[in-house]
């Protein structure tokens, strides 16, 4: 069974480890995949009702940030995340675009924790044809870094996500996911002057698919 | 400020013991794959020491490069193959030496914190 979220994570890890020799990189990826598949399987065995997408995202987050893993191996990649040319607006955020839509999003639930803010898809069936969802997460004063990932997989219709900082400035804006089957976006915005409540807005129209928003902060 | 410093201190202490703990667990449970090793580390310390897999695997990789552990791919219960680790002869020597050093260090620290007079 394919797992797109896992595949996306491993693709990011592969890019981060680009400086390693190919055989060493392949060995790392193989072991990482083995670990994550086992962790996901164990979680789903304990809680069969937990969503595979959500569990996968949690386990990849728990495994570690690809850039940090590469740095720990002394293999920080020189390659910046490739910016898709057809979305030039993302270039200014230094975003590696990875959009994965999670199936049938009605609402996104953001949970604020001291070191990690995680958004999960709620398991509701999309009934309305046009809907918007608003949610927030809080960046606390001691937070040093923030990484926000939007993952969208579209089967039909349109969906979009916009994230704004406490000043109202738009940080991520993905309002036009109507054509692509799959998109993902990741950003690590500067937090200077951005402590407080961040806003997540989701819009969808005749949409089937899935949307995941994940915001992860690390404390000093 | 004190909390932040204490947190850093605790992380340093945990980090300092990590290699020894990994070697000790591998010696006891070999052959053991990374996922099980990480879980064993958390369980044997009652959850006190929990490290990200992304931290542990580079250490295992380094230990293998130094000839302290060796690995092999074995079939797993869930299907995918797993990379399992065991100590080499060199690794057993290192573990024995590090265990002695740890005992001496712990004694020295306890002695100092208790007043330090001889």
Short account of what is shown:
Chain A is α+β, with helices and mostly antiparallel strands.
Characterization of the model:
- The complex is a heterodimer of chains A (about 220) and B (about 120).
- Chain A is an alpha+beta fold.
- Chain A has four helices and eight strands, in the order ααααββββββββ.
- In chain A, about 25% of the residues lie in helices and about 40% in strands.
- In chain A, the strands form two sheets. In chain A, strands 1, 4, 5, 6, 7 and 8 form a six-stranded antiparallel β-sheet that branches.
- In chain A, helix 1 packs parallel to helix 3 (about 50-65), helix 1 runs parallel beside helix 4 and helix 2 packs across helix 3.
- The model of chain A is unreliable at about 75-130 (pLDDT under 50).
- Chain B is an alpha+beta fold and about 120 residues long.
- Chain B has helices at about 1-30, 35-45, 55-65, 90-115; strands spanning about 30-35, 70-75, 80-85.
- In chain B, strands 1-3-2 form a three-stranded antiparallel β-sheet.
- The interface between A and B is medium-sized, with 20 and 18 residues.
């Amino acid at each position: 069974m394919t797992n797109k979220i896992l595949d996306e994570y491993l693709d990011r890890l592969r890019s981060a480890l680009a400086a390693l020799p190919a055989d060493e990189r392949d060995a790392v990826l193989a072991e990482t995949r083995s670990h994550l598949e086992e962790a996901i399987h164990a979680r789903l065995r304990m809680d069969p009702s937990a969503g595979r997408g959500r569990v996968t995202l949690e386990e990849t987050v728990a495994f570690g940030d690809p850039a940090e893993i590469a740095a720990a191996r002394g293999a920080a990649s020189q390659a910046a995340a490739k910016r898709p040319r057809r979305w030039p607006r993302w270039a200014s955020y230094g975003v590696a675009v990875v959009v994965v839509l999670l199936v049938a999003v009605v609402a996104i639930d953001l949970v604020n924790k001291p070191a990690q803010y995680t958004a999960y898809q709620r398991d509701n069936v999309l009934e309305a044809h046009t809907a918007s969802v608003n949610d927030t997460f809080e960046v606390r004063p001691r937070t040093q870094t923030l990484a926000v990932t939007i993952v969208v997989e579209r089967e039909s219709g349109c969906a979009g996500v916009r994230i704004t900082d406490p000043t109202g400035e738009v940080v991520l804006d993905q309002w036009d996911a109507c054509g692509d089957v799959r998109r993902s976006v990741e950003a690590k915005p500067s937090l200077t002057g951005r402590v407080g409540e961040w806003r997540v807005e989701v819009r969808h129209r005749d949409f089937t698919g899935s949307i995941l928003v994940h915001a992860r902060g690390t404390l000093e | 400020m004190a909390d932040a410093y204490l947190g850093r201190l605790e992380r340093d202490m945990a980090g300092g013991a990590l290699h020894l703990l990994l070697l000790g667990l591998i010696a006891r449970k070999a052959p053991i794959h990374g996922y099980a090793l990480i879980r064993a580390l958390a369980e044997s310390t009652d959850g006190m020491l929990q490290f990200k897999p992304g931290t542990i695997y580079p250490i295992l990789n380094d230990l293998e490069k130094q000839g302290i552990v060796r690995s092999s791919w074995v079939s797993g219960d869930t299907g995918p193959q797993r990379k399992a680790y065991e100590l080499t002869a060199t690794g057993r020597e290192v573990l024995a030496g590090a265990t002695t050093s740890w005992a001496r260090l712990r004694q020295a620290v306890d002695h100092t914190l208790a007043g330090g007079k001889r």
